[in-house]
Structures are given as structure tokens and as C-alpha cells.
Specification:
The complex is a heteropentamer of chains A (661), B (549), C (491), D (167) and E (100). By secondary structure, chain D is mainly alpha-helical. Chain D folds into two domains: 1-81, Up-down Bundle (Four Helix Bundle (Hemerythrin (Met), subunit A)); 128-167. Chain D has six helices and one strand, in the order ααααβαα. Chain E has three helices and one strand; from the N terminus they run E-H-H-H. In chain E, helix 1 packs antiparallel against helix 2 (28-53) and helix 2 (28-53) packs antiparallel against helix 3 (57-86). Classes of the chains: A mainly alpha (661), B mainly alpha (549), C mainly alpha (491), D mainly alpha (167), E mainly alpha (100).
Amino acid sequence: MTAHPILDSLWIIPLLPLLGSATNGLFGKNWPNATVNTVAVGSTGLSFLAALEAVREFFQLPADQIPFVKAFFTWIEAGKFRAGFDLQIDQLTVVMLLVVTGVGWLIHIYSTGYMAHEGGYYRFFSYLNLFMFFMLILVLAANYVLLFVGWEGVGLSSYLLIGFYFLKKSASDAGKKAFIVNRIGDFGFMLGMFLLFRTFGTLDFQTLFHNVAQQGWHREPWGVFGTMTIACLLLFMGATGKSAQLPLYVWLPDAMEGPTPVSALIHAATMVTAGVYVVARSHVLFSLSETALAVVAVVGCATAFFAATIGLVQTDIKRVLAYSTVSQLGYMFLACGVGAFSAGIFHLMTHAFFKALLFLAAGSVIHAMGGEQDMRRMGGLSGKIKYTYGTMLIATLAIAGIPPLAGFFSKDAILLGAFKMEGGHPLYAVGLLTALLTSFYMFRLIFLTFHGKARYDEHHVHVHESPWSMLGPLAALAALSVIGGWVAAPALWGGTDFFAKFLAPIFGSGEGAEALSEMAARNLEWTLAGVAIASALIGLVLAWWMYLVRPDQPGKLAKSLRPAYKTLLNKYWVDELYAAAVVKPLLWISRQVLWQGVDVGIIDGTVNGIAHGTAGVGDGVRYAQSGNTRSYAVWVVIGAIVILSIIFFWPGSHATMGMVR
Amino acid sequence: MLAGGHLLSVLVFFPAVGALALLILRGDDQVWLRRLAMTVATAEFILSLGLLWQGPAGASGYQREEFARWIVQPPISYHLGVDGISLFLVILTTFLTAISVLASWKSIEHRVKEFFVMLLMLEAGVIGVFLSLDMFLFFVFWEVMLIPMAFLIGIWGHERRVYAAVKFVLYTMTGSILMLVGIIWLYDKTGTFDLPAIHGMLQSGAIVLSPQAEMLLFLAFFLAFAIKVPLFPLHTWLPDAHVEAPTAGSVMLAGVLLKLGTYGMMRFCLPLFPDAAHRFAAPVAMLAIIGIIYGALVALVQPNLKKLVAYSSVSHLGFVVLGIFAFQQISMQGAVYQMLAHGISTGALFLLVGMLYDRRHTFEISEYGGLATPMPKLAAFFLFIALSSLGLPLLNGFVGEYLILLGTYLAHWQWSAWAATGVILSACYLLWSYQRVFFGEVTREKNKSLPDVSRREQWILATLSVVVLWMGIGSTYITRRTEASVGHVKAQMSRDWAREALRSTGTPACAAEAVTSLNPREQGCAPRALRAMVDPAQPGMAVLPKGMR
Amino acid sequence: MNGFPTTADIYRVLPELLWCGFGTLLMVLQPFVKGRKALTTFAFAGAALGTAATFSTGVHGGAGFYGLIQSDAFSVFFHLLIGGVACLVVLAAAPYLERERLESAEFYALVLFAAAGMGVLASAQELLTAFVGLEMSSISSYILAGYRRTSLKSSESAMKYFLLGSFATAFFLYGIALVYGATGTTVLEKMAGGAPNGQAILLKLGLSLVLIGIGFKAAVAPFQVWTPDVYEGAPTPVTALFSAGPKAAAFALLLRIFVTVPAATEFWFWAFWALAVLTMFAGNLGALAQSNVKRLLAYSSIAHAGYILVAFAAVTAMTQSGGGAGPAYAAVLFYLLGYALVKLGAFTIVSQLGGAGEKYLSLDDYAGLSQRQPFAAAALSLFLLSLLGLPVTAGFFGKLYIFKAAVNSHLIWLAVLMAINSVIGAYYYLRVIVVMYMREPAAEGAPMPMRLPLPVSAVLVVTAIGTIYFGLFPNQVLNFILKPNLLGALR
Amino acid sequence: MTPQLILFIVLAALSVVGALSLILQKHPIHSALSLIVVMVALAGLYLLMGAEFVAAVQIIVYGGAIMVLFVFVIMLLNAGAEEYTNFSKLAGFAGVPLGIALTGFIAAAIARSAGTAQVSGSAAVLAPTRTISEMIFKDFVYPFELTSFLILVAIMGAIVLAAHKEE
Amino acid sequence: MVPVNYYVILSAVLFGLGVIAFVVKRNIISIFMSIELMLNAVNLAFVAFSQGMGKLDGQVFVLFVIVVAAAEAAVGLGIIILIARNRQSLNVERVDLLKL
């Protein structure tokens, strides 16, 4: 019995969900829900426990054994290329592992309640477990190829889950869209891997990063497009696809077609953060290219603001959350971009808590409203579903960045990082503005949904609180959203800045750490924190004023700035733009030019043309065959003359001609 | 050991014997016809597995050879041999034949006897092509296998079957006759038809082909293979052939026959005419890339499901050709792997399409829709196979594509970049067609009551799915066996590769590295030599790693 | 003045003598013999005996009759070939004559005489003897072509064949006259030295006219015009004879002229080049649009003459560049062998399916043959594939050797043209196969005799087996025809 | 201008004229008669060359037997004057020119050959007939025997073809 | 004394006239006669050469030619009769059932 049984058989953690998925998928069709639950929730629960155990063992490992890499078997091998089924665990992985398994497990539990009355129950859980499997592969992978497996795999499961209600065209469209947009990102990701392999001859994290250190790559300054920059940008292209950043964010809002738990798990808590994870994982490379970092920061920042603006006017409760997710992901990238990786990961974690909570709560609301998702037909629910209301309020406070909840610390850390970075002030400003917008639209959501007078007809819709299977997870996540922040609370708030220290071995001794030392920094932090809180409060007040005090204001405002409003409402017409600029032309060209034109027209045309031509000549030859003996005789004479003239008048010694040596 | 020292001959002729046995059977007794055919096919498959026990896995030469003089003048010998490249292709053939027999259990009613006879003859011919090491023998089998295939299309096909069959034969024949001229010309220069012997002479420089001659020879061979693959401008026979062919025919056609082309390129074009191969690498790769994108785009807009799959083959085979003509160990191994993977998954796709056809007698996508409701199992299988075909990791499609792209990238990043778009497009056409066929409400009355997969079909599909999964995870089992042989092919080119590199770049060190070591640091450099050779004005040196600047 | 011929001379021409003798006997016995079977047996016996007698010529190799004829491996090969053809034609014709109610005796006699004539051509070493042999085969052929007196087509084909045939013969003869004038002799070996200076041009002219005469017999474009008409009109077994026999004999003579008169090779290369290309295209293109099987096969036999000419071009090219042309001769011989087998088989089937009065010759009558006559259909497809030149058939090796000869003498472009032609050919051969296998029989499908008469099936079995056997194991034949001194050997 | 030459010119002219009239005559019978003229003229030329035997055979076999056969057949079929159809464009337009071209070709080639040998008119140079017969029965016995079979074939052919036979 | 070439050229002319006759005439019999004309031309050439070279075999050939001509005549006239009987016309141009 080895010292750390689970670490030695790390594969057990991802394998459990896979088994669950297989079992449900193959045999679950005729099983009662209870059985399916046991399998699904059981398997994920077990893998959660396994993860906890693994983490416990991890903490006992001596520093020199970290990261702990375990090679299981070689998956692909050709020439000098080897991609193994190697799992590794280090601080970063630990964070992700806990988030994924924990939140995932909670959401499984929640789903048992939420999906209880849906068809294809077993199918749903099979997919959900499958997702868990791939997500765990993603975070545990010890090389880019295996990571890519998880990467594509989660894409697949999201495709399946978004299209879960496959009878609805919109659903299957959304699924397809998600997969294909992700593929576009993966295109870049693959090329990035290729370039890395070509440069360093390996794709294993440890060896690769080690080689980077070995070969002493100097940091490529801004504007230089060296190998490193290009590799990083290509990887980041993948990240933008997976984590719904500009310009590939379009799939995420549509992904809300899927069941709410899915939105919570995949499209808020875990999968969409994979991009951030990859960037953080490859920080060694990124930090060697200022350009790449800058791009990441700018894109993240822009996305954060952009999505937030759209979020302002959405009326579908889930879509608001979707855009907020996009926006928050932007934050994380901003963090990575400014080099505050640990802050990014920290926000990733907290966001997982409160955003999952938001979605689940929203789900509970929808559940209560009998499937209604439009906030304009809600209102005044606070009294009827107190429990849901409570949890959701906590989550909102958290995301809006009201201390001392989780969101505050993470967001504060990011803004701090942005501010500190040289030339980062514009980023900081935009970030701050975004924070204001965030708190505004979040509270808008709260007020529209739970306050004011009921805007739905009470006879048909009889609002009811959700079952405990759903409320339990809410409670758990609420708790996490409250206390989750303190693991990273800087000394400033009497915390130990544990998180940054914990991740220090990976990201280098954290940004915050040395900043603590002197006074100026401390004052700066105070001010920044104050500003942040202020902006959050402004947003809150604004929302309160517009939607509770003067409910007619929004309408007026919308009228007064109609164009802006329309633009936001239609999400800047990006989807339409893509359709008009890419999809339609592509289809047209393929159909009219390539298929009908080249294939049928030119190529087959030529071939058939030759055939017909030959046949035509054949007819000609036949007509020499007039059946008239006299003409035959003439033919013979002609032949005689031809032969004689060839033989007599052909120049020189002939045989040498017409030969190819 | 199975069948003593003559396993190869047994493999080649056992199906033919089975076919003769079938001929003896009474034509109307269909049950026994089917059973006998199935027995023969299965036995053949099991026999072919015997190859795996041969020799040291991936011994660079031929693991197992058989030799006998056949014709005195010109000296033509009966020379069979199997190496890592042909090994799995043979197994693939036997496997798919067995599957096809099973697949046409019900769907073939009239002239059952002839059908299975043709199928088995086809198998014999194809295996012969894969195993023969005597060019002449190779050509003989190459032509022989043509006829049964034409009959399969022409007799048991659909409406325009005759047109398709004739088109198929004429296309192939055009190429193969020129190849015959090439073979004879080569014989005229070397005095033998024996492939290893000719390799030896060319390697040792005993025979030196004039550039012009080598170019013509290369083209003569390449054209035949390119038509078979089919490479971009020569592909138009494929859609017709596929759409008209019966399911089993399509399976064999896509699964095995197309591979003959790529196999031929690896076996003949590259080792025999390295210089010409290098000279033509760029144009060929261009065609391959065009094929990848073009095939995918055309597939995207096909209203006919089977045609869609056919064009997807064009796209996938483009990857293989690209991998071969990147001249990288990795990419070439990827190419070999992709051949196998494509054989399985596209074969499976055709089976599925055939099953739909059996139920509704149409290939029009618009006729379907919402089939997931009446036939969930079929839908599940279809999705699984489609995913493997679009190269999802852990399924067979991924390994090949990834290796090809990776290897190609080492040599020519632009090629790889262009080709990689095919990965996006494949997702587009497969998922879109899948959505149109299986998702949504059932629109047509007829489709409401379609039966789900029968037990037999379920077994077929399950088997294939298992293989798909296994190939996706246990790829090393195959790649380790192909590695040495591929390396051998590459080694046979390297000599000239080095010369070319020297001539073009004049950086001996780099060129030498290019040949000797496969270390990726130099990997980047050899291609530069190569690229400089192909077209000196190649952009994109910027991304070359520092190590080389 | 020489002494009288020796018995060895008699042995050397034994086959011809036997054939002529049996021919005469047939005519003499005819009134007394009742029943066709006996006549058939007798004729077959005669043909077979003559073929067997080739052995004696082999034993007594060398020049005979003061160098008028030459018996060597070459002539042996052709005697065997021609004799075999005669035997098979006799067999194939038996049921046909019965069906058409035509006299057997004369028919067989004529076949035997024709065979004798061809035999003379194959071994003739002197032009006038060759001429007599040629006339012997031709005149018998004219008669055979018109053998179905009552049929318009038959008589017409006889007329055309006769008129044009004698027209060409006149050219041939005039050529001989000029050659004689140039060299003072008609014995090929004596011409080997070429003509005295000043007369060279006469020799050139004479040989060209000779070539024209032979080209006509061998259906070489542009002298091929008669072929389709005559082949279509003549009774099908006769067509079989035409396509197999005279062509072989004519090419034999041509070849012999080449080998023994080097003067000939010098200036004929381009003539052959052009004729080959012309003939291939004329045949294949003409065949494309044919709907009458007999006619289609006629065109195809033109095309094949073209392929053989490719080998001749190779011969000339090689003998020019001093290389041994042996393989090229071998190509011609082997090709003729495979070709004769195949054409015999094919026409036999056609004659069988033609039905009384040769009603069913159009392609549509063959629709769905595979169901009604599986054996015949299979055999016919085998023959067609052999004509197409697919492996494991004799036709393939024939084509292969010609390709090889062409490539050996660096006539790559000629080879490529030949390749293109093979593809064109593939199209119409496949058309027949497609019709037989892939088209359902017409509703009022031509009534087919459900079982083939014994002699016919015998012919088919022999030809089919031969086609495959020589396609798999050409060795013996090759060993035989690849003798370093194929001509003038056995001396 | 030796008498032989004059005689030659006369006979040559006669033969050519005969040949031309063979072409120009509409009625087969006239053509036949003009052909006979040609043959007689040729016989004369043979005599001029001193080949009496051949000349005799020419007159007897050709003039006598073959041409009589022709005339007989013409009578039998009482063939009228030929109708001048012109179905064959090729022959109609190209026939004569091409024929002339061919003639010119051959004649030119012969003229260019250095055949300066003189034909001695005196028949006494060699006693041909005996020698001829010896050659026929010794040197050329084989073709000679073959011709006998040839005749046989011809006879049979004539019978087979012309024989009335109603079934 | 007449040079051989005169005779040979004359034969060439006659041969050519024969060819022309063959092409020009419509009546089968006449056409056949033109063939005979060509054969005669050949004979003339043979005799001329043989006399020119003082070799006799040329004249032997002439005899063979004549014999063969006779044989041809028999068969040919037989065929002509056949044609005349089958279709009441001797016009060669009307005998074109077999074509294309």
C-alpha cells in the first residue's frame, strides 16, 4: 500500500464519471429515475471524495515531488512525437479539481430535482457524467494533447447537452453553433500545439516549460511576432473559442437553450473557464511575450465591457446571466493578461461559486414560474420563494463585488493588478466601469424578478418553492459564495493571502505579496477598494431607482436613445453580421461555384466533352464506310499514295524520330 | 503457425476459392449462399489476423515474403510480401469484407450468388494488390479487382448504375494503362519487375534515371494512383460510383479501394522516384489541400446524404495524400493511420446511410428529419461514427488527422494551416446533416413508424464502434507496427533528399541534420531546405524557431 | 537447273498437302457420304492431321523446293496456329451449316484449302509461291464469304471481298514484278543483299506495293474499308476464320519479308508508325457507335491489327538501331495467338446466338444474356476482356509484349497512343458486357437455344481455357517463339 | 529509230487506246472487246520482245478462254449499258485524279531507276519454251502443283456459287 | 532495240489505267475487266524484266499469273452471276446494303 493510493491511481477520478455515463447511457433507458440518480450522483460524488483524498495526499507531498506527474500509458506515438495518457496534479490543478468535482457534484444533485419531470432523464445524466469525465481529463492532463482531449470532449458534451431538447430546432442549432465555433478556436489551438512541438519537440507541460527555461528564451517585447508570441496567440485563439471571448463569444448566449443545470455547470462554472485555465497553465509561455499578454488583456477587457453592455437590456433571465458570464470571463482574461494569474484563477473559483448559484437559483425561479424565463412577466416573487430569493441575493451581492463576499476580493485583486501594470490604467478604467454595469444589471435582474408587483397572471402560474434536492445545492453554493473569498483575502483585510501564496510555486511569488510591504501600496489598495465598492453601490442604486422607484424610466430611456437601445437589444447584430459575412457566402460559393460550377460544370463537363468528342469522331470514321465499293477502291488508292509518299518523301533516316530515350 | 509458410498465398486465394465454391452452390438456395459467403469472409478475417503474429513487429523490411518464378521472359515472379504498411490494410480489407457480407444479408435479393462471388473476388484482388511485391503482379491484381467492383456497382446499384460503373472503369483504366506503360518502361531500364530489387538498384545508384524519364515515370504511376484516391481534379467518378453502388459496394469502395491509391503512392511513387516526388511535392500537396477544403465545402451543400459522405471521403483522403507528400515520419505514419481510420468510419457511415436507404429508399436529406425519435439507437450510432469521422479525440479519426497535420506542420506550416481548416469544415457538414436528418420533429408521415436497428444491424454497428473506440485509444498498437516500415520508405527517399537540400540551400550542416536526425529542432530546418527547393520564395520564415535563425 | 524435289521437300509441305488432299477427298466423297456428322468428322480429321503433320515439317527443317519455302520454328508456329483455327472453324461451323441448310462438304473443303493457302503464306520464302498461297486462301475466302447464296448480305460481302481483294492482289503482284525487276529474283534470301545500285528505288517501290497488298489482307487502315462489310455479310463461322486466319498468315509473310530482306526495314519505320496509329484509331473509333455485334467485332479486329503494327514499328526501329528484334517478333506471334483464340471464341458465340438466318446480331438481342445463357455470356465476357487486355487473359500478355517492344525501342509516344486506344476500346467492349449483365432481357427477348450444341461448346471450352491458360502460363509458347533464331531455325 | 521501236510505239499506243476505250465504253460488251484489243497488242509486244511462248499463251488463254468467258457471262446476264449513278462522291471527284497521281508516281519512280538494259528482239538468244517448261516442272513445281488445287477450288467455287439450289 | 524501261513504263501506264477503270466503271463486269487489265500490265512488266535480264523465270511467273487470273475469273463471274440473280442489277453502286 503506497503512501498516497489515490495519487498513484489518479485515473480513478475521471474514470468514475465515465463509468457512470456509460452505465446510464447503455442501460439506463428503462431504469427508474432513482436508479439513474444513484449511478450519476454516486459516481460524481465518489470522484469528488476521491478528489478530496487526492488533495489531502497532495498536501503531504514533499515540494520536490510537485507537480506530481503520473504516466499511465502512451496514447499516440509517431516518430519523435509521443502523447501519453499522463495525469498530473499541482496547485493549479488542485483548485480546478475541487471546483469541478465539488460544483459538479452539487449540480448533479440539483439536477435530480430539476430534471425530474423531463423525458430522456438517463440521457441527460449520461451526458452530464460524460462532461465531468472530459472536464477532469482537461484539468488533470499533463500534456497539451491530452488536455486537448478534454478540451474537445467538453465541447462534445456541451453540444449534446445544449441540444438536449433536440425536438426544438433552436436547441439543436445552438448545439451545432457551439461545437462549430469551438472548432474554429480549436483550429488555432492545434496550430499552437504544432508550433510548440516543432519548437520544443515535446508537448508535455513539464518538459516543455523546462525546455523553455533551458533554452533561455528572452521575453519578446511588444510588437515582435516571434515564435512564442505566435504560439501564445494561437493558444489564446482556442481559449477565446472555449471561453466565449470576442470574437467567438456568440455561441454562449445561444447555449442557454440547454437545461438550466447545464448552463450552470458547463456554461458558467467549469467548461467556459477552461480557456482561462489553459492561459494560466501556459503562463510560462505567455509571460515570455508582452504582445500576447497585451492581446489577452485587451480582448478580455473589451469582452467584459461589451458583454456587460448587452446584459443591460436583456429580458430573458438566463441570457442576462449568460452575458454576465461572458463579461466575468473577460475579467479573468484581463487578470491573466495583466499577469495577475492567481487573481484570474481566484476569480475563476469564486465566479464558479456565485455564477453557478445564480444559474441554479434562476433555474429554481424558472421552475417556480413553470418554465417562464422572461423577467418582464415576473416580479414580486421575493415573498413566494424566499429561499431562492435569499440565495440569489447573496450571489448577486457577490458578483456585484460587495464586500465581504467572494466576488469582491477576486474582482478587487484583478483591478489592482490591472492598475499596477504599466500602461494598465485604461484597462483598469474599463474594468471599473464594467464593475458598475455588472452590479447595475444584476440588481436590475433581482428587482425585476423578485420585487415590484407581479406582472404574471396568478391564476395560471402558481408559484411554488423548489424541492430540497434543488435548494440544498443552492444553500451550499451560497455559503461558498460568502466565505469563498476569504481564502484569498489579502492581509489588508486581515486575511493571509493564502490563495496567492498557495499558487506561488506555479505563478511565481504572487503580485500581491511583495506589494504588501510598503505603505504606498497599502494606501493605493485602500483607495482602489473604495472606488470599486463605490462603483458597485452606484450600480445598485441606479438599478433601484430605475426599476423600483421610477419603473417607467427604462422605457423612456429606451425611447430617448432608441438606436443605442436597439443595438444593445440585438447584441450589436453580431450574429447577423456573421451570417451575412461568412455563412451565407460560404454556402453560396460551395453550392453554385464549387459544386455546380467546378464539379458538375468544368470537370465533369470536360470529361463528358471528351467522351462525346470521341464518339463524334467515331461517327465520322463510320461515314468513311459508305458501303460503296468504288469509294473503297479510292480509299485503297489514297492509302497507296500515302504510303508511297511517306516512303519516298520522308526526310532522312527516320527511326530515330518519335523516340524518347 | 497458421497455414505454414504460405499464409500470404492463402490470404490471396482463399476468397477466390470461396467464390468458386459459391459458384457450385445452387443459385436459388440463398440462405446457404449467404452462410457460405459469411463463413469464407470470417475465416479469411481470422486468417488475416494471423499476420499479426508474424516476425518482429515492424521489422523494417518485409516481415514475410513468398517467392516463385512465374514467367520466364520477361522475368515476372510471383512475389508476395507484407510489411507494416500493408499489414493492417489487409486486415482492414478482410474485416470490411466480412462486414459487407453481413450488411448485404437482407438488402440483396436478386442474383445473390453472383453478388457474393463478386464480393469475394474483389477481396482477393484487393489483398493481392496490397501483398504483391512484383510490379507486374501488382498490376495484374490491380486490374483484376476492377471488374468485380464494376459489376457490384453495375448490377446491384441504383438508377444510374451503368453510367457510374462505366465511368468508374474508364477513369481507372485510363490511369492504369499509363501505369502499365510506366511499369514496362521501368522494366526496360532495370530489367526486372521485382520491387525490392528495383529499390535496391535505385538506392545503390546502380540505375540512374534521367530527370525527364523519372518525371514521366512518376507521373505515369502517380496519375493512376491519384485517380484511385481520388485527388482533387480527378475525383468526379467517386460521387457517382458511391451514390449508385449498393451499400456493400460503397463500403468496399470507400473503405478499401481508395486506399489502394494512397498505398501505391507510398509503395511506388515515393521510394522509386524520390527526386520527382520532391519536385512534385508542392503541387501535389496543393491539390491535396484543395481537395480537403473543396471536398468539405461541396459535401456541405449536398442534398443527397450518400453523396455527402462520398465528398467527405475526397476531403479525408486529401489529408492522407498531404501527409504522404510532406515526407515526414510523423505525417506519413499519420497518413497510414488515417487510411485505416477512414476505412472504418466512412465504411460505417455508408452502412448507416444504407440502413436508412433500406427503410426509406431515398438518400435525399430533405426526405428525412427527426429520425432520432423513431430510431434512437441508429441515431446514437450515427452520431458516434460521425464524431469519429470529424476527428474527435479518443476516436479513430483524430489520431490520423492530428499526426498528419502535426507532421506536415514540421515541414510546411502553411500547408498544415490550410489543411486544418478542413477540421472545422468537417464538423460543419457532418453536424449540419446530422441535425437535418435526426433532430427536430418528425416531418414526414412515413418516417414516424420506421423500425430501429435490427439485431443484425446492431451487431454490425456495435462491432464497428468498438473498433473505432479501440483505434482511438490504442493507436500505438498499430503505429508501433507501422513505424519501421514508414521509416524505411522515408529512408529510401532521404539520400536524394539530402542531395536536394544541399543543392538548394547550400547549408550542408542543416541538410545533413535534416536527413540524419529527426529531432524537431532540426525538423524545422530540413523542411526549410526542402521548401527552398520546392519554391524558394516561401514566406513565413518568421515563425521558424530561434534555434534556426 | 536443279534436280527433282526430294522426299524431305514433301515432308516440309506435308500439312498443305494433307489439307489440300482432304479437301479434294471431301469433294470426291461427298456424293457417297450421307449425313453431315460423317463429313464433319472427316473434315475435322483432315484439319487435325494436317496440323499434326506440322511435326514432320519441324523435323525436316530448312529450305524446301529450291528455297521456295522455308520450314522453321516460325512456320511451325503459324502452321499450328492456322491448323488449330481450321479445326475449330470446322467444329464451330457444323451446327451452323445444319441450321442454315448449307452443303457441308464444299464448305469444309474450302476451309481446308484456305488453310493450305495460309500455310503456304506462312512458310513461303519466295514471293510468287507466296502469291499463289495468298490467292489460294483468298479465292476460297471469296467463295466462303458468299456461301449463303440466298442472302443478299452474304453475296454482297462476297462481291466486295472479291473485287477489292483482287484489286489489292494486283498491287501485290505489281510489287512482285518490280521487286523482280530490281533484284532479278523473287526469292527473299537472294534479295537480302538489296538491289544493285540504281535499282534500289525500284525495290523500294516494289516492296511498298507488296506492303499494300499484305496490308489489305491484314485489314490495315486505310485498306481496312472492306473489313466491316465483309465480316458482317459473311456467314459467322467464316467471319471467325477471316478474323483469325488470313490476318495471321499475312502478318507472317510481312514478318518474314522483314527479317530476310533488311533492305525492307530501312524505310518502313514511319510507314508502320503512321499505319499503326491510323489503324488503331480507325478501328476503335469506328467501333464506338456500332450496334451490331458482328460489325463491332469486325472493327475491333481492325484495331487489333493496329496494335500488331505497333510491334512492327518496334521491329523496324530495333533492327535499325541494331538491337535484336526477337522480343518484338515474339510480341507479334503471341499476340496473334491470343487474338486468334479470342476472336474464334467470340464469333462462335455470335454465330450460335445469331439463330437461324442470323437474325439476332444487334446488341439489344444480347440484353440480359447472363440470365438466359450464363455460360455463353461468361465466355463472351472473358473473350471481350481478353480483347480489352485485362490480366490473366492471353490478350493481356499480347498487349503487354507489344507495349514492351514499343518501350524497348523507345517509342514511348506510340505506346501512349496505344494506351489511349486501349481505353477507347475498353468503352465498347464494356458496353457489350454491360448489356449482357446489367440490362434486363427485352420483354420479347430473342429466343435463345437453351443448350449449346456439343461442337460449339467444345470450341468455346478450348478457346476459353486457352485464353486463360496463356494468360497465366505463357511460358511454353514464349520459350518456343523466343528462340534466338526464330526464323530459319531448325536448320 | 529502229523498226522495233516503231513497232513498240504502235503497239503501245494501241494497247493504251484499248485501255482508254475500256474505260470510256458504256456497254460492257464494248469494254470487253477493247480489253481484247489490249491483250492482242500486249501479245504483239511479247513477240516483239521475243517471248513467243508467253505471247501464245496470252492469245490462247486470255484472249481465247478468259475473255470468251466474260463475253459469255455478259450475254448470259444480257447486261445493258451501265447506268451512270454517282453515289460515291469520293470516287466521283477524287477517283480519276488520284488514279492519275498514282500512275505518275509509279511511272516516275520507274523512270528514275537506272534500267538501261536493252531487250534484244532476236528470239534466237535462248530457246525459251523448253527451258520454261523445265523451270515449271522443276524449280517451280510446288507452286505449279498448288495452282492445280487453285483451279480445283475455282471450279468448285463457281459451282457452289452459281448453282441453282432451291430449298 | 527498245530499252526495258519503255516497256515497264508502258506497263505502269496500263496498270494506272486499270486502277482508274476500277474506280470509274459502275458495271461489276467492267470493273472485273479492269482488274484483268491491271494483271496484264503486271505480265508486261514481268516479261520485260525477264527479257531485259535474260532470265526466263519472269515468263514462268506470267504463266502463273495467267492461271490465277483464270481461276479468279471463274470465281468472280460466279459471284457476279450470284449478285445478278440476287438483285437484278449489275451496278456496283446499288450493292451497298452493308455500310457504316
